[in-house]
């Protein structure tokens, strides 16, 4: 399993456009042996301590293999809507990892 944690920072006023992109991208995850485990939009009071900008959303996703993740990123249907991502997302930070038992 490959685990992806993504911190997403959106441009002010672009929430609707961001959600349009997510409505396409999130269902696409399943096509490539992936699962959205968490999608969090933390409220201000959820932050106890921080030393980076507060993200708009946090996603935790798992894919069966690294290749599945790469195939998801190259999905042709998803690529048609990348302009929505570019329009709405200011920055994102992606962490890849594995599950430790």
Give, in spatial order, the strands making up the sheet with the most strands: 2-3-1-4
Number of helices: 4
Any guess at the CATH architecture? 2-Layer Sandwich
CATH top-level class: Alpha Beta
Uncertain runs with pLDDT below 50, 5 residues or more?
Answer: none
State the CATH topology: Alpha-Beta Plaits
Strand content: 25-35%
Number of strands: 4
Main sheet? 4 strands, antiparallel
Q: What is the molecular shape?
A: flat
Descriptive terms for the model:
single chain, 101 residues, alpha+beta, Alpha-Beta Plaits, 4-stranded antiparallel β-sheet, 4 helices, 4 strands, flat
Description:
With 101 residues, the protein is an alpha+beta fold. The protein has one domain (2-97): Alpha-Beta Plaits, CATH 3.30.70. The chain is built from 4 helices and 4 strands. It has a 4-stranded antiparallel β-sheet. Helix 1 (15-31) packs across helix 4 (82-88). The chain is flat and about 35 Å long.
Helices and strands, with pairings:
Elements: E1 2-10, H1 15-31, E2 34-40, E3 57-63, H2 66-73, H3 76-79, H4 82-88, E4 89-97
Antiparallel strand pairs: 1-3, 1-4, 2-3
Helix pairs in contact: 1-4
Short description:
The protein is of the alpha+beta class.
């Amino acid at each position: 399993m490959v685990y992806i944690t993504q911190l997403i920072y959106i441009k002010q006023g672009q929430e609707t456009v961001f959600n349009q992109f997510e409505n396409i991208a999130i269902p696409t995850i399943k096509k490539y042996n992936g699962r959205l485990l968490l999608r969090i939009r933390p409220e201000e009071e959820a932050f106890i301590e921080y030393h980076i900008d507060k993200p708009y959303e946090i996603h935790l996703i798992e894919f069966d293999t690294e290749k599945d993740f790469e195939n998801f990123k190259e999905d042709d249907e998803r690529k048609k809507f990348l302009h929505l991502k570019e329009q709405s997302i200011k920055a994102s930070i992606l962490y890849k990892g594995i599950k430790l038992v």
